[in-house]
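A protein record pairs a chain with a discrete description of its three-dimensional fold. The following entry can be read in just this way:
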Amino acid sequence: MIEEKLGTPYYIAPEVLNKSYNEKADVWACGVITYVLLSGLPPFNGCSDQEIMKKIREGAFNFNSSAWQNISQGAKDFITKLLTYDQSKRPAAHEALQDSWIAEYGNMDVEE
């Protein structure tokens, strides 16, 4: 376990704030990135780093913004798994890559 607090406030996992974390902190960050990519909004927002970190410590986020209106339930479920507050219940990276949403859309052909 690493015992140093590092990172950009928006992406910090709750366990990083407690200075005791492992590789699943990166899975949390991937959840935040996915949330931002799909909605254009951070899941934990505030006017200051302290406010952002307070919201991260609480661990509550939602999909109430109108930006989520046309986002699939599969995508929301994927994000919810990655942003599981308890790191022991959060999937490892290799498990997250096997999620049905990733499997369904991960191999799509992209037009150039």
Observations:
- The mean pLDDT is 90.
